[in-house]
Design goal:
The chain has one domain: Molybdopterin biosynthesis moea protein, domain 2, CATH 3.90.105. A hairpin with a 2-residue loop joins β2 and β3. With 74 residues, the chain is α+β, with helices and mostly antiparallel strands. The protein has three helices and three strands, in the order βααββα. Helices cover 41% and strands 15% of the residues. A three-stranded antiparallel β-sheet has the order 1-3-2. It is globular, with a radius of gyration of 14 Å.
């Protein structure tokens, strides 16, 4: 079993409203109206804000909203 590295996780709650903002690549693709392979490719290329957790990509809805707004303005 992995050991904790001393990080304080006391402010993390299951069901926390902020946690619901985290999306999988499939959820992000649906939200962005894109194919999931395109979303993963863009994430891998660093063209869309994402974080790789193990072998899976994770996206924050609020960050994607800001990214979309910046892409539209540019």
């Amino acid at each position: 079993m992995a050991e904790w590295n001393g990080t304080d996780y006391s402010n993390v709650y299951v069901g926390d409203e902020r946690a619901s903002e985290v999306m999988t690549s499939l959820e992000a693709a649906d939200y962005l109206k894109m194919h999931v392979k395109t979303v993963c490719r863009l994430a891998k290329e660093g063209k869309i804000p994402a974080k790789k957790v193990g072998s899976e990509w994770r996206f924050l809805k609020g960050v994607l909203d800001r990214w979309l707004a910046m892409e539209i303005v540019s």
